[in-house]
């Protein structure tokens, strides 16, 4: 015999199947569900009360006493009475409600769940041996009875199954039973009022996804039914279809059944070959960079060969290899990225290198550079220097610096100073006044951008007389002669 301590821990040897819930104890039974009990500590997740996952509405009446609905706190002892055999105080099955005269029970499945029950109409009174059958066969939707729905293979009656009838023509007792599924998404519920005393519960009504079946007779007890046993078989959370792969474009954190994932392989940020022109026997560097980790393999194809095979770099998001081409002419390289996901795409990128023969010459394309007899680059032209960063011949581009004869940058011009960034910037207010007496000045004493009249900037960015500084003017010669005469006269007087 199964036992259950009403005031203590359950002594369970069986339980209804509770599945698909990640935040509910799978061992919880109907008795605990009806009294809104959370699982005991240590028995598993306990985040939600049953009314938050097992059902939408429940109505309970015991011995004509209304116990409440899902909005009311139930009295545990009163609820326990619905699980006792008549005149007893022991719960033999905590998943089975036993309705006698004065009792009523209604259970509405919660959306997103399917609850399955076995319902047994039982007659222990003797007399009419077909009492239970006669009652159940009159629970109908239009003209279709519950036994007919249970025995049909039509999808129109998929909520009904496992009809059984043990009434005999000679027996004093009988049991007529069936199983019914309550789909919460269709607002399904079952309700039985033994005496039809409750205004909330019908005598016998079953709303399913296939429609509503209800009796066209009076309440069960008034039709000779001794009791009705309602056993919870299972509560299953419906799977939520969606993409469960976090790497997918359409990942759904709420989905429980994986379906319809869509993927996009990473984009290619860059794919380069350096240098772009080489001679046979000279190496090149092939480099790539991908935007994300959404890929499973990288390949670089050249003349039908994957250059990354065996390098250990086929799964590198960013890397490079050295390769020495041997084929004269244009050498093409293709970067191909794949992902082992369905319909994810295969991004590709192409680049090329011009490979010249060992005896050929690479023609110089730097206009600021001299060339040798073979047309290859030689030294920079006068006034230019070789920029090691760009590899090109350049000149100082800082307008606030003097320029050396080789094109490199000299000192900063007046009232400018060299910063840590390597550029000349104006000195702070209150700095040196303009020291070039031949230059126009600003209101704050700093050098203006132009020389005074009769003066022009020299190569050092200083203002110099427009006349040749090495040639004396006629007025200057006359002054010198006058000075010499005066000195001679003084000497004679002495």
Would you write up a description of this structure?
The protein has five helices and 36 strands. With 494 residues, the chain is mainly beta. It has three domains: 17-237, no CATH class; 268-356, Sandwich (Immunoglobulin-like); 396-465, no CATH class. It has an eight-stranded antiparallel sheet. Strands 1, 4, 6, 9, 10 and 14 form a six-stranded mixed sheet that branches. A five-stranded mixed sheet has the order 18-24-23-20-21, with no helix packed on it. Strand 29 and strand 30 form a beta hairpin. The longest helix has 20 residues, at 474-493. It is elongated and about 140 Å long. Residues 1-13, 41-46 and 468-494 have low confidence and may be disordered.
What is the fold's blueprint, element by element?
Layout: E1 17-19, H1 30-34, E2 55-62, E3 65-68, H2 76-81, E4 96-99, E5 104-109, E6 113-123, H3 131-136, E7 139-141, E8 144-145, H4 146-151, E9 160-165, E10 174-183, E11 189-193, E12 204-208, E13 211-215, E14 227-237, E15 241-242, E16 257-258, E17 268-274, E18 277-279, E19 284-290, E20 297-302, E21 305-306, E22 318-323, E23 329-338, E24 348-356, E25 369-371, E26 377-380, E27 385-386, E28 393-394, E29 401-403, E30 409-412, E31 416-418, E32 424-426, E33 439-441, E34 447-451, E35 455-457, E36 463-465, H5 474-493
Parallel strand pairs: 1-14, 15-16, 18-24
Antiparallel strand pairs: 2-3, 2-5, 4-14, 5-11, 6-10, 6-14, 7-8, 7-13, 9-10, 11-12, 12-13, 17-19, 19-22, 20-21, 20-23, 23-24, 25-26, 27-28, 29-30, 31-32, 33-34, 35-36
């Amino acid at each position: 015999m199964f036992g259950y301590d009403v005031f203590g821990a359950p002594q369970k040897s069986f339980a209804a199947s509770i599945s698909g819930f990640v935040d509910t104890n799978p061992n919880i039974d109907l008795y605990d569900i009806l009294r809104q009990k959370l699982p005991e500590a240590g028995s598993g997740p306990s985040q939600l009360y049953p009314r938050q996952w097992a059902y939408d509405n429940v109505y309970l009446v015991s011995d004509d006493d209304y116990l409440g609905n899902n909005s009311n706190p139930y009295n545990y002892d009163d609820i326990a009475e619905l699980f006792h055999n008549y005149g007893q105080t022991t719960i033999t099955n905590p998943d089975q409600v036993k309705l006698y005269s004065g009792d009523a029970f209604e259970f509405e499945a919660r959306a997103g769940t399917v609850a399955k029950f076995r319902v047994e109409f039982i007659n222990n009174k003797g007399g009419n041996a077909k009492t239970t059958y006669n009652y159940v066969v009159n629970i109908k939707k239009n003209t279709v009875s519950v036994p007919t729905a249970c025995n049909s293979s039509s999808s129109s009656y998929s909520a009904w199954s496992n009809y059984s009838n043990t009434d005999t023509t000679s027996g004093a007792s009988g049991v007529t039973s069936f199983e019914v599924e309550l789909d919460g998404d269709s607002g399904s519920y079952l309700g039985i009022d033994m005496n039809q005393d409750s205004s909330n519960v019908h005598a016998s009504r079953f709303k399913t996804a296939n429609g509503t079946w209800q009796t066209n007779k009076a309440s069960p007890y008034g039709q000779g039914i001794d009791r009705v046993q309602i056993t919870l078989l299972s509560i299953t959370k419906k799977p939520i279809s969606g993409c469960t792969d976090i790497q997918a474009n359409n990942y759904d954190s709420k989905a429980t059944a994986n379906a319809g994932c869509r993927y996009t392989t990473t984009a290619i940020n860059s794919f380069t070959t350096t240098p772009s022109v080489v001679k046979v026997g000279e190496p090149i560097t092939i480099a790539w960079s991908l935007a994300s980790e959404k890929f499973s393999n990288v390949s670089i194809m050249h003349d039908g060969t994957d250059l990354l095979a065996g390098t250990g770099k086929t799964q590198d998001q960013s890397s490079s290899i050295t390769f020495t081409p041997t084929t004269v002419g244009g050498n093409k390289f293709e970067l191909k990225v794949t992902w082992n996901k369905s319909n994810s795409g295969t991004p590709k990128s192409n680049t090329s290198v011009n490979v010249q023969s060992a005896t050929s010459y690479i023609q110089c394309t730097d206009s600021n550079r001299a060339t040798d007899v073979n047309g290859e680059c030689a030294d920079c032209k006068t006034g230019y220097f070789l920029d090691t960063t760009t590899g090109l011949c350049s000149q100082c581009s800082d307008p606030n610096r003097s320029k050396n004869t080789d094109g490199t940058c000299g000192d900063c011009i007046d009232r400018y100073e060299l910063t840590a960034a390597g550029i000349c910037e104006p000195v702070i207010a209150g700095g040196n006044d303009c020291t070039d007496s031949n230059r126009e000045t600003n209101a704050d004493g700093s050098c203006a951008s132009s020389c005074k009249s009769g003066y022009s900037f020299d190569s050092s960015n200083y203002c110099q007389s427009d006349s040749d500084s090495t040639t004396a003017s006629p007025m200057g010669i006359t002054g010198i002669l006058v000075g010499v005469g005066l000195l001679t006269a003084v000497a004679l007087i002495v």
